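Reopening: structure tokens for the zinc ion complex, inputs below.
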Amino acid sequence: MTETAKLGAREQSHADVVRWTCPHGLHAGQGCVACYRASTEADPALPLWEVAVWFTSTRPMPIRALKDVRRHGCSFSLDQPSTPLVYLLSGQARAATGTEAVAGLVGFLIDNRHIANTFTVTEVRAVHS
Ligand SMILES: [Zn+2]
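Re-run output (same inputs, fresh job):
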């Protein structure tokens, strides 16, 4: 099962907004620190999601920050595809739904402001593995 959403390009439909809202009432694309914390101690019985989050940053991220992600988020990685100021954060997360998995991954960025302090999520994907 794959769930994807392109954000920001135009208004999302009400149904999409509801679908991408985590149990804490936050939109997955905006991130949720509570979902991130929950995913770090998630029940191993919960499904494992392969999550990808594309985001733009207003300023370039130092290489050191890219490496930092590997150290902090056990199974996360931050890459820079060819487009300047566009980044891809990917990783595995355990959560009941793809929405929570995405909210948690973006929540990791929020919880680690030193990595990316101003960012805008443009697209998210969660694949049930
Ligand atoms: Zn949440």
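Helices lie at 14-19, 33-40, 63-72, 98-111. The pocket of zinc ion is lined by residues 22-24, 26, 32, 34-35, 103 (CB under 6 Å). Marking as resolved unless the reporter disagrees.
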